[in-house]
Amino acid sequence: MKKQNNKNITKNMTIKAVLETDSSLADVLLGFGMHCIYCPMSQMETLEEAAQVHEIDVDFLVKKLNQNKSSK
Q1: Which residue has the higher pLDDT, 69 or 64?
Q2: Which of 9, 22, 25, 58 has the fewest CB atoms below 10 angstroms from its CB?
Q3: At CB < 8 A and 24+ separation, what contacts does 17-25 make?
């Protein structure tokens, strides 16, 4: 079941928290090559930490996540 709310995504959120905000955001993360969403570290790793490891601009990632967040 897809979980949704209107909470804004921030770079300090864990990957787990992002997916709890809106599970469809997994597609955005996967699109950035962040297959780590399936890794146990995603429970504790922030978007900023994951973006650094994957050499992704965290501000751009957060922008795209918020743009693609379901508004329902």
Answers
A1: 64
A2: 58
A3: 18/47, 18/65, 21/69, 22/69, 22/70, 24/68, 24/70, 25/65, 25/68, 25/69
Which two tokens mark 70?
């379901």
The angle formed by the CA atoms of residues 20, 14 and 54, to the nearest 5 degrees, is 120
| pTM of this structure | 0.84
Q: Evaluate whether residue 8 is within a structural domain.
A: no
Report if residue 39 sits inside a domain.
Answer: yes
Q: How many domains, in total, are found in the chain?
A: 1
- Has residue 31 been placed in a domain? yes
